[in-house]
């Protein structure tokens, strides 16, 4: 049985899921009918106890990518395999590993950060987030998220997607965006799904002619946070000063016994075959979707308390090197104004322990030409951390 599963994983990986490095591994949210699975898949009739043991062994043995793709293969076999795999696989906060696309929107581990790196392509204005310490020679690193920079007349947008070749906001790969103001000093993070029930989309609308928009769920944007860089009018020497307000995470998440909002599923159905909606004059289906402007203020429930605020950790001045220095623990090797570490900015009334106040929740820094490291941990998710790091790439002459 173990050899059979291994052979299926290898053949499936070589033939299908690993044929393109530009997409994240996505498990179908709507599997075929159970009767179809029984007819087409001999593995669907395994006893539940045996199936539980098989998937549990695969999950424990394949802890790193690309071998961890075997866990994804198990979830894609049929409905019964998928349900058991979802029960076994824990969230990144619990196990410290990324498995499914929804893991990118769940909080990271509490004890040690998840280490990633970002590769920038200046020619195409794209930014690719990979899972790993540093780029590998075999080009086999796991792609997590991708972003494309789009300059507009009054702002700059970073469209964030699960795929490096699909940045259409009406597609299933779209997960959110980052938008700056005209000066590039304030940014707003938008999520494609509400992180909690208290978040609502804006009331403005745009129209899309697309066959990929699901009629069950409009392509809304939800404002989940803001990033602000302090103006440096006198152009004095020193690092950038930034503040991040995360409206989707309460400050109680970093208190003793606190928890951060954890979504359990993506809103889109990635493999659903959609029939075109009726339209006139032969055009594609016309969908009304919410599109928040930069002025939209997210509504945070009164019972959740204050939102979590992050600030950059103050560096120290190194007399011998004559520069500002931070301890990145070997993860950053090139001095850059873009480098930063974020810690919680709390008040005494929040009752946050000194250890939590000193903990680096997100760090970002340069290690080579167009290569940057990104390490994040609880309560941030990979999507939130990536959006914050993207803000450092935008030109901010008034902040430097």
UniProtKB/TrEMBL annotation:
Single biological process term from Gene Ontology: regulation of DNA-templated transcription
Domain Tubby C-terminal residue range list: 104-395
Span list, region Disordered: 1-32
InterPro entries: F-box-like_dom_sf, F-box_dom, Tubby-like_C, Tubby_C, Tubby_C_CS
Stretches assigned to the F-box domain: 43-86
One Pfam family here: Tub
UniProt-listed PANTHER family: TUBBY-LIKE F-BOX PROTEIN 2, TUBBY-RELATED
Family (UniProt): Belongs to the TUB family.
The protein's name: Tubby-like F-box protein
Organism expressing this protein natively: Hibiscus trionum (Flower of an hour)
Taxonomic lineage from the root: Eukaryota, Viridiplantae, Streptophyta, Embryophyta, Tracheophyta
